[in-house]
Amino acid sequence: MPPRIAVLVPCFNESLTVARVVTEFRAALPxxxxxxxxxxxxxxxxxxxxxxxxxxxxxxxxxxGGVIRRMFAEIDADIYVVTDGDAxxxxxxxxxxxxRLTRDDLDVVTGVRDHEDRDAAYRRGHQFGNRAFNVxxxxxxxxxxxxxxxxxxxMSRRFVKSFPVEARGFEIETELTVHALELRVPTxxxxxxxxxxxxxxxxxLSTYRDGLRILYTMARxxxxxxxxxxxxxxxxxxxxxxxxxxxxVVVEYLExxxxxxxxxxxxxxxxxxxxxxxxxxxxxxxxxxxGRREAKRLAYLAAGALQC
Length: 308
Hints:
Layout: E1 5-11, H1 18-28, E2 33-38, H2 45-51, E3 55-58, H3 64-74, E4 79-82, H4 94-103, E5 108-114, H5 124-141, E6 153-156, H6 157-161, H7 172-183, E7 187-193, H8 207-225, H9 227-256, H10 262-303
Parallel strand pairs: 1-2, 1-4, 2-3, 5-7
Antiparallel strand pairs: 4-6, 5-6
């Protein structure tokens, strides 16, 4: 049996582009079903997508992460193609990405955006932010992706069904990347053209607000996935501060037998206690994180490998 392919398109007010996205992916993947989830659009996005041949469902709660959560829960397929509804990704590369997934028995193939030096397609500020976050993710989790914020991915069933979506907005791509790194699943990257939006279509990404959300998400995931290094860094900071404040108090006590700066001594003692507690928390939560990772791995294995 050929694999069941589902193309997932989360949309919010994409009336200018959604018909083109649906048409292009239906042409590139004739055997697939294109699902458009209309995220409370007010411009008729859902009706246009339905007329173009997509299966349309509506999600009233705002945020791309929430839409992806519902998509992954409701749609049953062997291969999932996730793309944006703004017609910036090249649908003709989807067959190659799927072929790479099935040929090499991978779980994620990410479309790395190539804007061909067209700043209208990919603003310089967003390029710099993407590179900076890629470097930061590599430092925190040990492996640096080329384009962690790409919205164009092909994923296996076992990866999708083992992914506990928590994100509400554009930080969903960060969660997908970290989930792949945490489970150590086989992945690959394919360079694909990235087009500019058509005139009249505007990006829903807020550079600073969503950037801060993504930064917070990375810190939270680092705490949850690698709690021992996270709390170890906290313990180191507390210990350094405690030693800096308490060293002179100790020297003075050894020389005179007195502790004239009692508040400083109490503060230094408190900081050292916090350092000890941080290490203890890190060790305990590391065991908890290991159990969560094993549960995700079991869910991943239970979904079964793609048979084709």
